[in-house]
Amino acid sequence: MTTTGSDSTYDPPADPAASAAAAAVEQPPPRTDRRVALVTGASSGIGAATARRFAAGGWHLLLSGRDRRRLEETASGTSAVLLPADLAAPDGAKMLAEAALREAGRIDLLVAGAGIGWAGPFLAMPHTDIDRVLFLDLNATIHLVREVLPAMVAAGSGRVVLVGSVAGAVGVREEAVYSAAKAGLAVFAEALRQELRDTGVGVTLVVPGPVETGFFARRGRPYHRSHPRPTSAGRVAAAVWDAVSESRDDTYIPSWLTLPARVRALTPGLYRKLLDRFG
């Protein structure tokens, strides 16, 4: 029963007064002919793999994460701009969105991949960890989307990619709050998609199963299930690329993970029996 740190938190400017003075000087944002993607959680795992895939595809990358050194590793060999950000801090999402728009002038794609995990019995979960998981995995993402969307809607184009989890579709024992946060993200994606109809802005929900990253090590409990088998971060990144390229609303990695939700909808009794045995 342990917690893990986020891969996307903010390092505040060393000199806030100097930063405020610089921001007061109006300068036109730089222009780029390449499409611009803001990727959070880009320090490692899915975020880092996704950033590298889009850089290879010719996108201009704005990378956010807690660990600057690891962000530099992700950005190596690319022209990506590093924007360390603390999404858990007051106005963290606002500060990141403003920094991204100042840097590139626009955001064509937001890949919201930052998040944390917690494993253990719910009755043993400290209230502080409940709040932390819900805020970083759900609230902070919603706030960031709220900050980024106006520019996309004004431009009449763009896409928001939300990184969910199979835990949000089926509910995983001893990951109750994490499952709740990812389920909330899935419903948020559906509702937002309806609101953005005819604006030119799309919403993609990415639903991976277990992924071979440092996520499980950071939360303090390794992945121990025989099924589903962990997939690679690169495979998830490729799925994100395909989903954005084809303007898909949802993508599951692997694709058979759509089955549990279908079973739940059609035969909830059977679904719960299977979950009791395998969940």
Strand content range: 5-15%
| CATH fold call | Rossmann fold
CATH superfamily: NAD(P)-binding Rossmann-like Domain
Structural class: alpha/beta
Q: Helix count, per DSSP?
A: 11
Poorly predicted residue ranges = 1-28
Helical content class? 40-55%
Question: What is the count of structural domains?
Answer: 1
Shape: globular
Separation of the first and last Cα atoms: 18 Å
The main β sheet shows up as: 7 strands, parallel
Question: What's the helix-strand series?
Answer: EHEHEHEHEEHEHHEEHEHEHH
Pfam families: adh_short
Enzyme class: oxidoreductase
Keywords: Oxidoreductase
Family: Belongs to the short-chain dehydrogenases/reductases (SDR) family.
Structural descriptors:
11 helices, 7-stranded parallel beta sheet, alpha/beta, Sc_DH/Rdtase_CS, 279 residues, Rossmann fold, disordered N terminus, EC 1.-.-.-, oxidoreductase, oxidoreductase activity, two-stranded antiparallel ribbon
Q: Your description of this structure?
A:
It is built from eleven helices and eleven strands. It has 279 residues and is of the alpha/beta class. The chain has one domain (2-9, 31-278): NAD(P)-binding Rossmann-like Domain (Rossmann fold), CATH 3.40.50.720. The strands form three sheets. It has a seven-stranded parallel β-sheet, with helices on both faces. Strand 3, helix 3 and strand 4 (81-82) form a beta-alpha-beta unit. The longest helix has 29 residues, at 127-155. It is globular and about 55 Å long. The relative contact order is 0.14.
Q: Which helices and strands, and how do they pair?
A:
Elements: E1 2-3, H1 16-24, E2 36-40, H2 45-56, E3 60-63, H3 68-75, E4 81-82, H4 92-104, E5 109-112, E6 118-119, H5 127-155, E7 158-163, H6 167-170, H7 176-195, E8 201-208, E9 211-212, H8 215-219, E10 231-232, H9 233-245, E11 250-253, H10 258-266, H11 268-278
Parallel strand pairs: 2-3, 2-5, 3-4, 5-7, 7-8, 8-11, 9-10
Antiparallel strand pairs: 1-6
Region (Disordered): 1-32
Family: Belongs to the short-chain dehydrogenases/reductases (SDR) family.
Domain Ketoreductase: 35-214
